[in-house]
Amino acid sequence: MLTGFSGTPALPSVVCVIELRELTKRYGGRPVVDRLSFRVEAGVVTGFLGPNGSGKSTTMRMILGLDAPDHGRALIDGVPYSAIDRPLRTVGALLDAGAFHPGRSARAHLLALAAGNDITPSRVDQVLATVGLSDVAARRAGTYSLGMRQRLGVAVALLGDPGVLLLDEPVNGLDPEGIRWIRDLLRGLAAEGRTVFVSSHLIAEMALTADRLVVIGQGRLLAETTVTDLAAGGDTLEDAFFRLTSQATDYRGSVA
Amino acid sequence: MKAAVRMEWIKLRSVRSTWWLAVAAVASMAASGIGVGLGYRSHTPVATEAQILNNSLSGAMLAQLLLGALGVLVVTSEYGTGMIRSTFAAVPRRRVVLAAKVAVVGGVALTVGLVASFAGYLGGQMTIRGTAIPTASLGDPAVLRAVLLTGAYLGATALIGVGLGTIVRHSGAAIGILFALMFVPTIAAGLFGEGGVAVGRFVPLLMLLNSVAVITPGPGLFDGGVSVLLMCAYAMVAVLAGGVLLRMKDA
């Protein structure tokens, strides 16, 4: 089920939790995210796939209201993120593994964010246990390894027990054990009926983690598909991915 | 708003720089007070009550930079580390976050400023004990007022720091601008000679030394209370400008 370059794909209206409508962001006149429209549904892991610099992180930041779109909107259950009361209870996000003060302990970091959303301190201990950081929670987060930082980021995402999870490149820099841990965690969360939206530039990893795929290149929607459908063309997932993204490059070349 | 204030309070007390800067502010004022007192012990002619009070509070010159830096770092350290994105994800209404930072930093800096100011005063008074120098008693309303206003001045400096940090977003740049704002106008006002007072009475450092931390303000200067209100107005302008930029710029 490949969609073209223009228009909103006519997907059947299932449970729709994250919805982008013509979301656009320009830096210095150049579109980084270009009229991006798609939906992310509950109960499955949706992979957000695209080469480096294709606009995945910018899209994630716009969904969270951190960057303002130049055009279009991103909605969660029909409302913009900024309109959600105590949003960590609805949406959990891992944007990058360094979004903490290196001098602050993991526990204090989580306690502060919990306090901002009226989440009880006992929940902080729960998520620390979930991500396996209980024993080092009093240590300054700046002393953590990359894997531990990712786990702290995941703890933040899980803090409010949210129904929607957004994770930007969660497996970046993780060892194989960490990658498997994230994969199992995400699949478990989706199986509980949550909406899980996870970006990656690694098609092989997405093939193992995601059920549905949203593929972008140069900020444009290339495909809204499933892992099964993408591989159904007879070639490997990797070939299918390259075919999609090279089209995006060609398209851009023709108008530039 | 209450939740945001609790969040900011936990964040402020859970980094070491807060404690270092607070301790350094108090220590610098105590040390200045003691140093000034010791210096005056052997000074002729015998110092007046006004001199010893004014000079024993002179550590506020350093304390204002330390507490100003504390205010700056509360904002810029978040931009420098990426923490700001976690903060705004938790509380998307940015001006609520800014207001919470102002409330928490204002309260903490005012408290630390008052402690530092009293430490400077006591340092001076304790070291001149047993000499002919007249005691500046806190029972004298003019003395108590000078000590309290100095603490309040320091609190306002931290809020100027919060505003600058929100505008500039970069620790080094914001602290550099803060220091420049404290010293450059002072030097500039000095270039006007006698006429400089007309400008100098609006300049933070000159207000501190000649209007706030004194029993009687220098000629042509504002009353200490007015000077502190002026500092609060500067802080408000900086914070409001920061608030406008927060709304306009991406996190």
TrEMBL record, chain B:
Where does the record place a coiled coil? none
What is this organism's lineage?
Bacteria, Bacillati, Actinomycetota, Actinomycetes, Micromonosporales
Q: Does the keyword Ion transport apply?
A: no
Positions of transmembrane segments: 20-40, 52-75, 96-122, 142-165, 172-192, 228-248
Spell out the protein name for this chain: ABC transporter permease
Keyword field? Membrane, Transmembrane, Transmembrane helix
